[in-house]
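User: I'll paste a sequence; please echo it back and then give the predicted structure.

Assistant: Echoing your sequence first, then the prediction.
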Amino acid sequence: QVQLVESGGGEAQAGGSLRLSCAASGRSFSNYAVGWFRQAPGKEREFVAAIGLSSGRIAYADSVKGRFTMSGDNAKNTGYLQMDDLKPEDTAVYYCAVRMVIPAMSQYDYVHWGQGTQVTVSS
C-alpha cells in the first residue's frame, strides 16, 4: 500500500513562493508518475501538474505554466511542486497523487492520494 504525505503548504503573499513536497512510502518511487491537483472552496478538483519520474515528462495546467515547477527526487521518494509568483487564485487545498509510470491530467487516473495541504495566498 502506497502512502503519500504532503507538506509545505501555508500562507504567502501574492508574488511569493512556496514549495510543496509529496513523500511516498511503499514501492519504488522511480516507477511512479506524480500528479498535483488542487481544490478551492466551492470548486471542483483541478489538475495542476504531473511528472513521470522515469521518463521525466512533465505537464502543467495553463494557469500555472511558467510559475510552477515540478521535480522529483527518487532517492528520497519525494516529489516537489515549486510555486513561484503566487496569485490569490492559487488558494486551494493541494493534493498529490501517484499512478504507475505515465503522468496523467485526470484525477480519475490516479489511485493513491495524499491528505492534502492548504495553500493560502493573500493579495
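The chain is about 0% helix and 50% strand. The first strand starts at residue 3 and ends at 7.
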